[in-house]
Amino acid sequence: MDKAVEKAVELFKGRIIPEWYMRLESNYKENWGTTSPSRKKADARQYWTELSLSLLMQPKPDKGMLRTAIEATKVSNKDLHDKLKEKLRILR
């Protein structure tokens, strides 16, 4: 146990470290920055497009998810945004 405390003092030099930092995966540092921000945006846009289309296919989707999808598609896909708003209007 003493070796663990000594190693922690050596690594963090007395700084207070948040709990989430201690729970990171062991290879987190090696994988940092491997995905570009533009790729992350494209992945998010694709996710929200697929989710929005599935919400439109459902006869009675969750209104909270519908509102979230409306906000997510506001800039990226105007046609889908309008269809989602119409679906929400019909559900009210």
Q: β content, as a range?
A: under 5%
User: What is the average of the pLDDT values?
Assistant: 83
Count of helical regions: 6
Compute the CA-based radius of gyration. 22 Å
Task: Flag low-confidence runs.
Answer: none
- Count of folded domains: 1
Order of helices and strands: HHHHHH
Estimated structural class: mainly alpha
- Major sheet attributes: none
Bulk shape: elongated
How many extended strands? Answer: 0
**What is the helical fraction, as a range of percent?**
55-70%
CA(first)-CA(last) distance: 60 Å
Would you kindly provide a written description of the structure presented here, covering whatever features stand out?
This protein has helices spanning 2-12, 19-22, 28-31, 37-57, 63-72, 78-91. The longest helix is centred in the middle third of the chain and has 21 residues, at 37-57. The protein has one domain. The chain is mainly alpha-helical and 92 residues long. The chain starts with a helix and ends with a helix. Helix content is 70%, strand content 0%.
Name a few traits of the molecule.
6 helices; elongated; 92 residues; mainly alpha
Put the structure in a nutshell.
With about 90 residues, this protein is mainly alpha-helical. It has one domain (about 1-90).
